[in-house]
Amino acid sequence: MNALQRDLKRLVPLAEKLGADTVAADCHRQHYHIQPPVGWLNDPNGLCCYDGAYHVFYQYSPFDASGGVKHWGHVRSTDLIHWEPLPVMLYPDQPFDCHGAYSGSALVENGALYLYYTGNVKHPGPYDYITAGRGHNLCLAVSRDGVTLDSKQCLMYNRDYPSGLSCHVRDPKVFTWQGQYYMVLGARTLTDRGEVLVLQSADKLHWNHINTLTTPEPFGYMWECPDLFCLNGRWYLLVSPQGIPCQNVYGCGYFALEGDWRTKDCTLGQFYPLDSGFDFYAPQTFADEPHSRRILLGWMGMPDAPYGNQATVDCGWQHCMTLPRVLTRRADGRLLQQPAPELLALRQKNTVLSPGQAHLLPSARFALQAPVSGSFVLHIAQGAELHYTQPDRRCVLRFTDPVLSGGRTQREVLLDDACRSLDVWGDASSLEVFLNQGEAVFSTRYYPGAGPLAIRLDGAAASVYELE
Ligand code: FRU
């Protein structure tokens, strides 16, 4: 253990202890979403099932709620509802990751956890940090008990990547397929095009670039946080592209793939956004093999967004994850996202509301389910509104109270089919709206504060549940 690691190992728990009371007193603290004990959280990392539990790592800056040098925070759960905080797994404590242990993934093999991540290094000097001055190193950390770290090493430096790339090559997602190891890596070319590198390895340590996936026409300047997986026989590439036209600062969605992704014959289908809310970025998936399903988690945040909520920063923390969502495939190949069924165990007192009936919930923790068959408007706490208009199949999430919304206005989506179902999950400071069994989703933070929450659905009857 080097001196920096030794000190960080003491300082992080100290920062968590010092901040605990102020954080706990914040009425915006979430009840069933993953959030940092103190400080800042962004991307989900290293999602996996290990030793009978779900493990989620996350980009974590324990010393600065507005962002700072990234560690890998760590939580574990057996029910996808209650998340046990564990010690930080990765510290930025080596020459190859000293400016941040950036995003990556986990591979579970023979009882060990192999964590692939990007070591971020910024060299001092007059650099643009895009074409020069930055190291994005491919790193591997190994844990043999899923909680403590055994080793860390750098496997590849920027000079080992294919030519024509900027310094931005990051966020390895590793998986096995037909007896080989594969990795996808997000990249920005020197001509500012986003793409994904596909690498192959026979031993988990030595990696060869075998293919590059991108669109025929430029689509954004950088593709972050790629994920490549097969769902019911069809391959999908998930990416968070920067620089595409979209409602938020950055986009995030998926392509269905045609052809073998290991070869030049592979082509990318249409790009579909995964979420239409204000706060959703850098999602990752993992195979929940015991339950034969694929689960997705995203960061319920947006990098470089002009809005935010100073109140949580003043209380010493910022951001959280989305709910775990089960991914399924519609007959036409589109992906559907639905809250993991485990979450239904949170439901307590149920009230059936007739159309237009106002209801006062004891807190912002609620779930609402409604079959719908025409236009509707959901009003929440007099400041958040969800409008669906049947003729144009348009659904708009609108905030009328800037205090409640942290300065946001509205986001919208057009449904493929008429809306048949509405499923809303509220926590102390978030809303997640699922339409048509997850054909469209809005994820957003909002800040209704402590105390009762008024709710009303015009145009349909609904079941409303208070949550544990
Ligand atoms: C996405 C991202 C990743 C990077 C990480 C750093 O939000 O920019 O590309 O690895 O965050 O925290």
> What molecules are bound to this protein?
beta-D-fructofuranose
Strand content: over 45%
Number of E-state strands:
33
Mean pLDDT: 97
What spatial form do the alpha-carbon principal axes imply?
globular
> Fraction of residues in helices?
under 10%
**Rg value:** 22 Å
Major sheet, described briefly? 6 strands, antiparallel
With strands numbered from the N-terminus, the spatial order across the biggest sheet is 22-33-24-29-30-31
Question: What's the helix count?
Answer: 3
- Helix/strand-derived category reads mainly beta
Low-pLDDT sequence parts = none
Distance between the termini: 42 Å
Describe this structure in words.
The chain has 468 residues and is mostly beta strands. 7% of the residues lie in helices and 50% in strands. The strands form seven sheets. A six-stranded antiparallel β-sheet has the order 22-33-24-29-30-31, with no helix packed on it. The relative contact order is 0.12. Beta-D-fructofuranose (FRU) binds at residues 42-43, 59, 70, 102-103, 118, 170-171, 224-225, 281-282, 303. Beta-D-fructofuranose binds at residues 42-43, 59, 70, 102-103, 118, 170-171, 224-225, 281-282, 303.
Draw up the topology in text:
Layout: H1 3-24, E1 39-50, E2 53-61, E3 71-77, E4 84-90, E5 101-109, E6 112-122, E7 134-143, E8 151-156, E9 165-177, E10 180-189, E11 194-201, E12 208-213, E13 222-231, E14 234-242, E15 253-258, E16 267-273, E17 281-288, E18 293-299, H2 310-314, E19 317-318, E20 325-329, E21 335-339, E22 347-353, E23 359-361, E24 366-371, E25 376-380, E26 384-389, E27 394-399, H3 402-405, E28 410-414, E29 421-427, E30 430-435, E31 440-445, E32 453-458, E33 462-467
Parallel strand pairs: 1-19
Antiparallel strand pairs: 1-2, 2-3, 3-4, 5-6, 6-7, 7-8, 9-10, 10-11, 11-12, 13-14, 14-15, 15-16, 17-18, 18-20, 20-21, 22-33, 23-32, 24-29, 24-33, 25-26, 25-32, 26-27, 27-28, 29-30, 30-31
Bound molecules: beta-D-fructofuranose.
